[in-house]
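Sequence in, structure out. Go.
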Amino acid sequence: MDPLIVILQAGTLRIRFEKRTDRFTHVLEWVDADRVIPMMESVVGHAEDAWPVDVPLQEVVLESIGKDQRTVALGVGKSGYGHWSAAVEPLEIAPSLVRWDIACRVERTPERLLSSLRWLGGTQDDFMASGDPKRWEASCPTPNGKPCTLSIAVEIGQLHWDSKQKIVSVLPAVAMDRRGTARWCYTVRLS
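Output:
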């Protein structure tokens, strides 16, 4: 097993974590047999960023938890003035549903805390209005021609969509003005 690549599978949704430079990036991929289509990728920050634009995980491992021994990805990292942790847990296989639960303990008031994913799909026509400010959706191309939807729904926090850069960001619900721990949680569904 390559320690620089960690793969978490939930039905046709695969999350591929790959260590580049000092941290892991991740890609959300649609997978069916030998066909793979990258749909979204994390926005990579820089080692010198005190407050990175995505969760800076230096370690990612797969662990079996609970009575059903469900496989989850657990990650930790430190950058600047924050200590991050992430739990990525498949909840359903069909449709594919994965929960991201992120926390950051800060030593001082943060400039920004967020998770950011860039849409790798085609045109603006891909995006669908969900009518819900905590939900983002896009139609996905698939090799077999079947219709597919990728959605991100915020459970804890706020959602932001930058249509020019095609970046979806999830932020903590409340801006922090002191030391402490911030948390945000969202699900990714591929149906």
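Check: The mean pLDDT is 87. The first strand starts at residue 5 and ends at 10.
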